[in-house]
Specification:
Layout (H helix, E strand, L loop, with lengths): L1 H17 L4 E8 L6 H20 L3 E3 L2 E11 L4 H12 L4 E6 L3 H14 L3 E3 L6 H9 L6 E3 L4 H14 L4 E7 L2 H16 L5 E8 L7 H9 L4 E5 L4 H11 L6 E3 L6 H7 L7 E4 L8 H14 L7 H21 L4 H8 L6 E2 L4 E2 L23 E6 L2 E4 L2 H15 L3
Parallel strand pairs: 1-3, 1-4, 4-5, 5-6, 7-8, 7-9, 9-10
Antiparallel strand pairs: 2-3, 11-14, 12-13, 14-15
Helix pairs in contact: 1-2, 1-11, 2-12, 3-4, 6-7, 9-10, 12-13
Length: 412
C-alpha cells in the first residue's frame, strides 16, 4: 500500500505540473528537519494522506471538471529567518491557492505577515502559541486571510492548570524554553493560575535554552521550593532532559505541559522516565472509531512505521486538507481570496479523523481571534505517556469521544 499510495500522490503532482490549469496548488510548510521535525513531518505526511485520497477520487469538483491538488513543500527548519524567506517566496506566487502548516510560533510570526499582505489563505497547523493569532487582533486587522487549526495555548494551559488543581496540588514549578512558544506558554500558565483562583503557588519560574542538556539548577530551585508538580512549556528534546533530570534527582512528581510532550523525540529520549507525563491532545493514536482506525492504519502502512511521530500533528494536517478542499469546492474556484470567504462560512459538514467539522470558522472579527480558530475546549483531551505511547489520560475522555462518534454515525 505504501508504494501504491505514494505513487498515486506523485502521479497527481506530475499531472498537475503538466496541466496547471486543472490543479489547485497548496504549499505545505514546517520543520521537516531538526528538533521539531517529528511535528513537521507528521503534519506533512498526514496532509499528504488526505491529498492522495482526494486525488485518487478524481480531485475537487469545480464546475464541470475535477481539480487535483498539486503540492509544494518548504522546510523552514524551525528557524524564524527561514520562515520569513519562505513567507516572502510563497507570497510572490500568483497561482498559489493556499498554505497549510507551520509548527513554531516564531516562524509563524516571521512569515505569515507576508502572506497576509498578499491576501493568501493559510491554515496554521499545528502551531499553538497564542501570539500566532492574537497578533492580528492586537493590530486591529480588518480582513484576515490566516486561520488556525490547532488547540491554542489558551485551551491547553487551562487544561494543564485544571489537571494540577484536580490532583490536589498546591505548589508547582513552571519551566519553559526561551522560544516564542515557551515564553508565550509561560505567560498563559501564569494567567490561567490567576483565572482559576490562585489555587496554585508558583514556587519556581525557570527558563532553559534550546540545546540545554543539564537542567539541574532549574530543578534544584523547583525541588527546594517544595513543588509537587512541574508544569512545562517547550518544543524540542530539552523536554526529555527535564524528565531525565527529575528522575536522577529523585523528584517523583508528575510532569504536566503542552501537547509537544507527545512527540516521539520526548518519549524516546525520556524512556521510562517519561511514563506518567500528561499533556493536552486533539488526537490519540488509538482506533476508537472506524475513521481513526483507517487513518492510523493508512499512516503506518504508507510510511512504514508502527507509531506516528506526532499523532496530533498528523491528524490535524489530514483534517486541515479536507477543510481546505471543502472550501475550494464551495467557492468553485482555486482563487485564494474566494477560498478564504468559503472557509469563513463552510455550509457542509466536513468529516475528519478528529471530528466532523461544522462551521469551524466564522467571519473575521478583529475583537475576537476565536473567529478564525477551529478548536474549542471540547476538541481536546488529556493524554498520558505509557510504555512508549500516548494513551488517554482520563477514561472519561475515551468514553466521551467514542459516544460522540457513535451518535454522529447514527446521524444525531
Amino acid at each position: 500500500m505504501k508504494k501504491t499510495l505514494l505513487a498515486t500522490l506523485l502521479l497527481g503532482v506530475f499531472a498537475a505540473q503538466a496541466d496547471a490549469g486543472d490543479t489547485v496548488k497548496i504549499a505545505l510548510t514546517g520543520p521537516f528537519s531538526g528538533g521539531s521535525a517529528p511535528m513537521g513531518t507528521s503534519m506533512r505526511d498526514g496532509a499528504k494522506l488526505a491529498i492522495a485520497e482526494i486525488n485518487a477520487g478524481g480531485g475537487i469538483a469545480v464546475g464541470t471538471k475535477k481539480m487535483k491538488i498539486e503540492v509544494i513543500e518548504r522546510d523552514d527548519e524551525a528557524k524564524n529567518e527561514r520562515g520569513a524567506l519562505i513567507g516572502q517566496e510563497l507570497a510572490s506566487m500568483g497561482d498559489l491557492a493556499g498554505v497549510i502548516g507551520t509548527v513554531n510560533t516564531g516562524v509563524v510570526l516571521a512569515g505569515d505577515k507576508h502572506l497576509q499582505e498578499k491576501g493568501i489563505t493559510k491554515i496554521i497547523t499545528p502551531a499553538a502559541g497564542s501570539a500566532s493569532m492574537t497578533q492580528w487582533s492586537k493590530a486591529g486587522v480588518k480582513d484576515l486571510s490566516i486561520f488556525r487549526f490547532a488547540a491554542h495555548d489558551g485551551i491547553q494551559s487551562a487544561m494543564v492548570v485544571e489537571e494540577a488543581i484536580n490532583r490536589k496540588f498546591t505548589k508547582v514549578a513552571i519551566l519553559f524554553d526561551a522560544t516564542n512558544y515557551g515564553v508565550s506558554g509561560r505567560d498563559d500558565l501564569v494567567e490561567q493560575i490567576k483565572k482559576q483562583g490562585n489555587k496554585l503557588e508558583v514556587v519556581a519560574l525557570e527558563k532553559f535554552n534550546i540545546g540545554d542538556k543539564d537542567m539541574t539548577a532549574q530543578l534544584l530551585r523547583a525541588k527546594g521550593g517544595g513543588a509537587q508538580a512541574v508544569l512545562i512549556w517547550g518544543i524540542g528534546p530539552e523536554l526529555a532532559a527535564v524528565a531525565n533530570g527529575m528522575a536522577k534527582m529523585g523528584m517523583k512528581m508528575p510532569l504536566i505541559g503542552g501537547w509537544t510532550l507527545s512527540m516521539s523525540n520526548f518519549i524516546d529520549n525520556a524512556g521510562k522516565n517519561g511514563d506518567g507525563t500528561l499533556m493536552p491532545q486533539t488526537f490519540i493514536e488509538e482506533p476508537i472509531t472506524p475513521k481513526a482506525k483507517s487513518f492510523i492504519d493508512g499512516y503506518h502502512k504508507t510510511y512504514g512505521v508502527t507509531r506516528i511521530p506526532s499523532p496530533v500533528s498528523a491528524a490535524q494536517g489530514y483534517d486541515a486538507v479536507y477543510l481546505f478542499a471543502a472550501a475550494v469546492k464551495q467557492a468553485q474556484s482555486d482563487d485564494t481570496r474566494k477560498i478564504k470567504d468559503a472557509l469563513e462560512d463552510l455550509r457542509e459538514p466536513v468529516k475528519g479523523v478528529i471530528a466532523t467539522w461544522q462551521r469551524p470558522f466564522s467571519k473575521w472579527d478583529p475583537a475576537n481571534e476565536q473567529s478564525h480558530e477551529a478548536f474549542r475546549r471540547e476538541n481536546a483531551v488529556m493524554g498520558m505517556v505509557k510504555d512508549g505511547h500516548v494513551v488517554f489520560g482520563n477514561e472519561a475522555d475515551r468514553e466521551r469521544l467514542t459516544k460522540n462518534a457513535t451518535e454522529m454515525k447514527k446521524g444525531k
